[in-house]
């Protein structure tokens, strides 16, 4: 799982049927303190996250397919939760 910040939404009028009913979000991975790192990913939103939300992203195909309940879906990343708060021990990430 990765912690990320939703940066935008992908709009597509033509897409595979498995994607219908889901938003596709642009997510920037972040450290627990909110510092961006790494490249953005596209993730299927299963929890109605919005731009600016901090989210939990599952970046592993089999787990992602279990969440959307289709074992053959061409899916790698899904947003599985909206984060309310991140607490870390001082001096640790």
Describe the SSE topology:
Blueprint: E1 2-10, E2 23-29, E3 41-45, E4 54-59, H1 61-68, E5 77-82
Parallel strand pairs: 3-5
Antiparallel strand pairs: 1-2, 1-4, 2-3, 4-5
Explain how this protein is built.
This protein has one helix and five strands, in the order ββββαβ. It is mainly beta and 93 residues long. The protein has a single domain, classed as EutN/Ccml (OB fold (Dihydrolipoamide Acetyltransferase, E2P)). Strands 1-2-3-5-4 form a five-stranded mixed barrel.
Low-confidence stretches: none
Radius of gyration (CA) equals 14 Å
Mean pLDDT: 90
Describe the strand arrangement of the main beta sheet, using strand numbers.
1-2-3-5-4
What is the 3D form?
Answer: globular
The level of helicity is under 10%
Spell out the CATH superfamily: EutN/Ccml
Number of helices: 1
CATH architecture: Beta Barrel
- Content-based structural category: mainly beta
How many distinct folded domains? 1
Brief write-up:
With 93 residues, the chain is mostly beta strands. It contains one helix and five strands, in the order E-E-E-E-H-E.
